[in-house]
Write a structure and sequence with these properties.
Length: 75
């Protein structure tokens, strides 16, 4: 009974739900949603993304940082 109360509903992948095939590095507003306050890429546990989209997201954030669309760190 206690385990039922503590069980959390698993998050669903944002990109799968919205039928987004490729993660675009130029969409900074969407990418910021998956960054922490310090500018770090959020973990899969927190974002609820599937493995394929988490890899695409990480690559897109790295490209956006290199192109100066996103900052490397924030403080």
């Amino acid at each position: 009974m206690v385990n039922n109360l503590l069980a959390k509903k698993k998050k669903q992948c944002y990109f799968c739900i919205n039928n987004i095939r490729e993660v675009d590095y130029k969409n900074a507003q969407m990418l910021r949603r998956f960054l922490s306050y310090e500018g770090k890429i959020a973990a899969r546990r927190r974002t609820g993304l599937c493995a394929a989209h988490q890899r695409q997201l990480a690559t897109a954030i790295r490209r956006a940082r290199f192109m100066a669309i996103l900052p490397f760190v924030t403080k």
